[in-house]
Amino acid sequence: MRKINLSGFQIATSExxxxxxxxxxxxxxxxxxxISRADLAxxxxxxxxxxxxxxxxxxxxxxxxxxxxxxxxxxxxxxFLHLNNERAGIIGINVRPQTxxxxxxxxxxxxxxxxxxPTSSNPQVFLERLAESVQNLRKxxxxxxxxxxxxxVPGRVNSQTQKLVFAPNLGWRNxxxxxxxxxxxxxxxxxENAANSCALYELWxxxxxxxxxxxxxLTVSEGIGTGIVANGQLVRGADGMAGEFGHVSLxxxxxxxxxxxxxxxxxxxxxxxxxxxxxxxxxxxxxxNASDGHSVSFEDILRLCENGDKKANxxxxxxxxxxGIGLSMLVTGFTPRLIxxxxxxxxxxxxxxxxxxxxxxxxxPLATATQITLxxxxxxxxxxxxxxxxxxxxxxxxxxx
Length: 401
Fold this sequence. Notes:
This protein has 12 helices and 15 strands. The chain is of the alpha/beta class and 401 residues long. The chain has 3 domains: 14-83, Winged helix-like DNA-binding domain superfamily/Winged helix DNA-binding domain (Arc Repressor Mutant, subunit A), CATH 1.10.10.10; 88-200 and 382-395, 2-Layer Sandwich (Nucleotidyltransferase, domain 5), CATH 3.30.420.40; 212-374, ATPase, nucleotide binding domain (Nucleotidyltransferase, domain 5, 2-Layer Sandwich), CATH 3.30.420.40. The strands form 4 sheets. It has a 5-stranded mixed beta sheet, with helices on both faces. A 5-stranded mixed beta sheet has the order 13-12-11-14-15, covered by helices on one side. Strands 7-8-9 form a 3-stranded antiparallel beta sheet, with no helix packed on it. β4 (99-105) and β5 form a beta hairpin. The longest helix is centred in the C-terminal third of the chain and has 25 residues, at 310-334. The radius of gyration is 23 Å and the shape is globular.
């Protein structure tokens, strides 16, 4: 049920109906391509003349293209339609504390090319370098018309202004990616939190996407992020920054978090927390510490764990324990159909997963309807989530009330 907002509604006009029909046709082409005009008319119930008008508009705007002729025993042969992946593309950007990656994809989020650059600690310097990288990407593929840029950031984004309000693991506040990149590139830009983008990735491209309306995306990286979809809509809250469960305190006397709070879920279950724990135990047990130049990365811990290192395994299992505590909170509070986990830790899920599931079963014994599954990092869910930010502006149902 969606209540009509009587203080901020929009009356449905004939233009609204045309827009809805256009998006239905575009979605059908995306999911059932190649498909003919006649088949589109049968699927939608629209008159063939209406379908043809929509198709001509989509062809003119380069969203779709006509392909091969179909076969019929008699009558006019149908010409099949499909997304124009040779001429239209989208740029996705994934910002992380160490490295930022860029990808130019087609309209099905298949990668055409990728690039990366170091994430500068100075946001203004970073934006300048990022804009330069985007322009270089476009120059090397000048034949592709770019529909827009989707940017994924490790922090909370105001849904009205699309400013990055605060990214604790970057130390940035009030960074306006949208305005800067739109002015520098002339392209429309959409900015979103990483966890929300991963939730959108699952809705658009995931193996569970058909009929999926309730899910949570948990991103485990330098921090902890949660993107929540309920009844097919991202849960944003009053200011667009809902879902910050990584900064819910599990222990008010716990370690200080970069957000200023103490004992956040993030300071126990993130990559950074696991590095810190490993450094305090394994290195010191050998009479060393990180300040001696023996610092480790999360990649180092994963590799050691895979090779059977006892201390690395203990650190990973501890991480799983605290991931399970936070997940049990999400399962009990939302009982979503699906929780997807995105992050490098999924590489060693054979070691961390049993601990996670034991804790969830112990603390949420009545919540049995939720499936917890992993997303392969090689599928680049954050980047493809960034691409979906642009796709959804053209494919999702418009808001009319």
